[in-house]
Design brief:
It is a single chain. This protein is mainly alpha-helical. The chain has one domain (about 1-60). Helices cover about 95% and strands about 0% of the residues. The protein has one helix at about 1-60.
Length: about 60
C-alpha cells in the first residue's frame, strides 16, 4: 500500500515538474522575442540619434 502511494507521489511530482517546465518555456519564448525587439529598437534609436547629431553639425557648419 505504501509503495503504491509512493509511486503515485512520484508520478504527481513528475507531472508538476513537466507542467512548470512547459509553462516556463511558453512564457520565455515570447519574452525573448520582445526583449530582442526592444534591443533592436534601442540600437536603431541610438544610430538615429548619432546620425541626427552629425547631420545637425554638418548643417550648422
Amino acid at each position: 500500500m505504501q509503495e503504491m502511494e509512493h509511486e503515485k507521489d512520484k508520478e504527481v511530482a513528475q507531472e508538476k515538474l513537466s507542467f512548470f517546465t512547459n509553462i516556463s518555456h511558453e512564457l520565455l519564448t515570447p519574452l525573448t522575442i520582445i526583449s530582442c525587439s526592444v534591443e533592436e529598437l534601442q540600437h536603431k534609436l541610438k544610430i538615429t540619434e548619432v546620425v541626427g547629431k552629425r547631420s545637425k553639425a554638418t548643417f550648422l557648419d
